[in-house]
Amino acid sequence: MFCLGQAFDLGWGVQVNHAEAVARYKVAADSGNSDALVFLGSAYSNGNGVEKNCYEAALCYRKAAEQGNAWGQYQLSLCYKSGMGVPENWNEAIRLCRLSAEQGLAEAQYFLGECCLIGKGTDQNLSEAEKWLDKASAQGHAQAQELLASIQEMTKKGSSGCMVISALLFVSLAVAVIGSAEMFELI
User: What is d(CA 172, CA 158) in angstroms, rounded to the nearest whole number?
Assistant: First the structure.
């Protein structure tokens, strides 16, 4: 049922039909398929085939996370980070993200690396940030590769850990405001 849900969701050999995908995901989820729970959570999160419902999305992610599903853990961590369907709780976000990162999910490793770099939800720790960014980079995560390269370039030039973090925070803020880092050179 899960694969049939994906077929309807993504248009694999059939016309895209999100409502039909959700129906298939529900059957698979009721049978204990944790991947179906993650896709069902995504449907609720985005309002694809069902009315958007952040609480239901978080509930689906929680059930998948409880089964040890790395994507479920990661998606639930993002819910806790933003307060989507659950109260905002950075400690829980980091705990869940770490579980997912330890299973090898590159997105979770990148997010955990960022959090360690800036000290959001966890202690600020440059070597821990580099560890997680390196793991995500090794899997081809482009943002992790760029951030890790920036950190390594700055530390190679003799910048202290505090200077590296301050500079990267400045660039991150500038990118968030103007949408591009092209005007900055991290040298």
Answer: 21
Helix axes 142-156, 161-178, angle to 10 degrees: 140
Report DSSP letters for 89-131, one per residue: -HHHHHHHHHHHHHTT-HHHHHHHHHHHHHTSSS---HHHHHH
* Six-digit token string for 11: 């248009």
Q: From first to last of the 187 residues of the chain, give the pLDDT tens digit.
A: 999 999 999 999 999 999 999 999 999 999 999 999 999 999 999 999 999 999 999 999 999 999 999 999 999 999 999 999 999 999 999 999 999 999 999 999 999 999 999 889 999 999 999 999 999 999 999 999 999 998 888 877 765 556 666 666 655 555 444 444 444 444 3
Q: Is 10 left (phi over 0), alpha (psi -120 to 50) or beta?
A: alpha
CA-to-CA dists, residue 84 to 12, 156, 180, angstroms: 30, 40, 27
- The Cα 62–Cα 38 span in angstroms is 9
User: Which of 33, 82, 85 is closest to 97 using CA atoms?
Assistant: 82
pTM beyond 0.90: no
Max CA separation in the chain (angstroms): 57
20 touches 43 (CB < 8 A) = no
